[in-house]
Design a protein that fits this description.
The complex is a heterodimer of chains A (283) and B (363). With 283 residues, chain A is mainly alpha-helical. Chain A has one domain: Orthogonal Bundle (MetI-like fold). Chain A is 73% helix and 1% strand. Chain A contains 14 helices and 2 strands; from the N terminus they run αααααααααααααββα. Chain A has a two-stranded antiparallel sheet. In chain A, helix 4 packs across helix 8 and helix 13 packs antiparallel against helix 14. Chain B is elongated. Chain B has a 6-stranded mixed β-sheet with strand order 6-7-8-3-9-10, with helices on both faces. Chain B has 2 domains: 230 residues, P-loop containing nucleotide triphosphate hydrolases (Rossmann fold, 3-Layer(aba) Sandwich), CATH 3.40.50.300; 117 residues, Nucleic acid-binding proteins (OB fold (Dihydrolipoamide Acetyltransferase, E2P)). Chain B contains 9 helices and 20 strands. In chain B, helix 2 packs across helix 3 and helix 3 packs across helix 4. The longest helix of chain B is centred in the middle third of the chain and has 18 residues. Classes of the chains: A mainly alpha (283), B alpha+beta (363). At the A-B interface, helix 9 and helix 10 of A face strand 6 and helix 2 of B.
């Protein structure tokens, strides 16, 4: 930032920044505070005495206990984790190879193929789930984790392919050429040189794919029906909202626990993932 | 051994004819430099030798075996790239060992060769570092080391010095020369810098627009350029050219334009007489233009107005106006000369070059 009066810095930098932060973090705060608030406080009318929506003096873990004892939340967590990891792994493998091929190999129609893959990504899931439901039914995959593990890649692979294509283009071609002169086959050059160099890109593609499948709602809602097969987003909303009754405490506790793995994944890889998005390869 | 033969090599990119009918025999242990302006096809030619580009037509053979269809790894060559192309995720040691590991050398042998190469290049204490922790010159050495551990039949250098600063470039140039004398491996070197070409090459190949213009030893190119392009490309400051008309008076051939009137020396006059065209280009290098003294024949002198004066210490470069054209002269540092002076300059008769104005070929 250019040197200037201190108030300028406060008015044009810190203040907007603070407002922005509050705006972004408030829902998260609301979620946390609701999940530890006793039911008595949660369902009290707004004009009652001592009404304080932003704070509680009697925090409780009852909602978490309810979540694990009275619902199948542990199973939902496990399902979500398994499905997200499996579909991310499939999509990453396909995306890395497809991205490499589209950015490095000269074959006819490589450009239009890349565009084609991108277009499939633009088809909205809310349309695509109808034909996919038919396929899932024909292969008798309904109500199994595989119905999601095999359908999530329909939007994850195009996404990973495009991210990796961009990243591979940023890896100097000479690295690979040098490896091939050094005695590596094309396959070995990719394995030992290009992929290790592209690790930041692969990590960021992986984190994004993991988050997308972790949060996915519509396919999970349509393809899974029995409570013990559900994922966190579907389980929490379908089991903790009964008719027009919202179990706010467990609902928010479930949402909080559901967002923690993603938050951990992001904070753990944040450096790689920034490097991956800015596409920097340090020579 | 490392003998490379190019026979009728052509390269087409779609409609662009990038390399045109290149024929060349590179002897074992020879250091051959390809030089030319960018886009002249020199790098493409090298990449075809390396196997990184397919050959459109012609044959490349190494030690008598045609390698047209061999993968780069099977040609037993090593290449140093302009941007070094060091593997960023590997240490210096692993960078240098990579080629040997790929070729399944034993661990002890790999270690011996890497140590040996590191000693030659003076990078023994950098082996554990990552490329990003190295300076430009050090990276350059590692790239060289990675090539020499392999003991290949041929080294290929693709403008290896152009990413270095001027001082380091001169230093590495000398080291490259020493390295070649020590290892004796055939080397093919691509550059756009004529000084590198002149100093490093046993022979120099000058290219332009995909054509080989001339192949020869550095001094051969300097003294007897085959055409106007080679004459202008080799040597710094570049050769002066003046378009002149030839006339025959009293048995002597006189080259004339506005500002110049030079009587050609007998030897050159004889060659020119046999030539059909009367419109030619006269070429003279700045170092062959001197301040005229009393002993200089008036047939070879002319008036020049100094427009720019560059004092280099070891010499003075004068940009002068002669008639309609410019003439650059490199004169003794002791010469008494000021801006806007008009001097009488002289040409060394034996150093005159004559080119056909149309074909630009030397006469």
């Amino acid at each position: 930032m250019i040197e200037g009066a201190l108030w300028r810095k406060w008015v044009f930098f810190y203040l907007p920044m603070a407002l922005f932060l509050i705006f972004l973090l408030f829902p998260f705060y609301w979620m946390v505070i609701t999940s530890v608030r006793p039911d008595g406080e949660l369902y009290r009318p707004w004009n009652s005495v001592n009404y304080n929506p932003f704070w509680t003096w009697k925090p409780t873990l009852d909602h978490f206990r309810y979540l694990f004892e009275e619902t199948l939340f542990a199973a939902w967590l496990w399902n979500t984790m398994f499905i997200a990891l499996a579909s991310t792994a499939i999509s990453l493998v396909c995306g890395v190879f497809a991205g490499y091929a589209l950015s490095r190999l000269n074959f006819p129609f490589a450009g239009s193929l890349g565009t084609g893959i991108f277009i499939t990504y633009l088809v909205p899931q809310t349309l695509l789930f109808i034909p996919l439901a038919e396929i899932i039914r024909n292969y008798r995959l309904g109500d199994t984790p595989w119905s999601l593990i095999l359908t999530y890649p329909t939007f994850l692979i195009p996404f990973c392919t495009w991210l990796m294509m961009g990243y591979f283009k940023a890896v100097p071609k000479e690295l690979e050429e040098c490896a091939r002169i050094d005695g590596a086959s094309r396959w070995q050059a990719m394995l030992y040189i290009v992929i290790p160099v592209a690790i930041p890109g692969i990590l960021s593609a992986g984190i994004f794919a993991f988050t997308l499948s972790w949060n996915e709602f519509i396919y999970a809602l349509v393809f899974l029906s029995s409570p013990e097969q559900k994922t966190v987003p579907v389980g929490v909303t379908s089991e903790l909202i009964r008719g027009d009754v919202f179990f706010w405490g467990p609902l928010m506790a479930g949402a909080l626990l559901g967002s923690i793995p993603v938050a951990i994944a992001y904070s753990f890889f944040v450096e790689h993932y920034v490097a991956g998005l800015t596409g920097s390869v340090k020579g | 051994m490392g003998q490379v033969v190019l026979k009728g090599i052509n390269k087409f990119y779609d409609t662009v004819h990038a390399v045109k009918d290149v024929n060349l025999q590179i002897r074992d242990k020879e250091f051959v430099v390809f030089v030319g302006p960018s886009g002249c096809g020199k790098t493409t030619t090298m990449r075809m030798i390396a196997g990184l580009e397919a050959i459109s037509s012609g044959d490349i053979s190494i030690d008598g075996n045609v390698v047209n269809d061999l993968a780069p790894m099977d040609r037993d060559i090593a290449m140093v790239f302009q941007n070094y192309a060091l593997y960023p995720h590997m240490s210096v040691y692993d960078n240098m060992a990579f080629g040997l590991k790929m070729r399944k050398f034993e661990k002890a042998e790999i270690e011996k060769r890497v140590k040996e190469a590191a000693d030659i290049l003076g990078i023994g204490d950098l082996l554990k570092r990552k490329p990003r922790q190295l300076s430009g010159g050090q990276r350059q050495r590692v790239a060289l080391g990675r090539a020499i551990v392999r003991h290949p039949r041929v080294f290929l250098f693709d403008e290896p010095l152009s990413n270095l600063d001027a001082k380091l470039r001169v230093q590495m140039r000398v080291e490259l020369k020493k390295l070649h004398l020590r290892l004796g491996t055939t080397a093919i070197y691509v550059t756009h810098d004529q000084v590198e070409a002149m100093t490093l090459g046993d022979r120099v190949v000058v290219m332009k627009d995909g054509w080989v213009q001339q192949v020869g030893e550095p001094l051969e190119l300097y003294n007897t350029p085959a055409n106007k392009f080679v004459a202008g490309f080799i040597g710094s400051p570049a050769m002066n050219f003046a378009n002149v008309t030839l006339t025959e008076t009293n048995g002597a051939v006189v080259a004339e334009n506005k500002g110049l009137r030079i009587k050609l020396p007998d030897e050159i006059a004889q060659r020119v007489r046999a030539h059909s065209s009367r419109d030619v280009t006269l070429g003279i290098r700045p170092e062959d233009v001197t301040v005229a003294g009393p002993s200089d024949s008036p047939d070879l002198t002319f008036d020049a107005a100094v427009e720019v004066l560059e004092q280099l210490g070891s010499e003075i470069i004068l940009d002068t106006r002669v008639g309609d054209g410019m003439m650059v002269a490199s004169v003794e540092p002791t010469t008494k000369v000021k801006l806007h002076d008009t001097l009488r300059l002289a040409m060394r008769p034996s150093r005159l070059h004559v080119f056909d104005q149309k074909t630009e070929a030397a006469i």
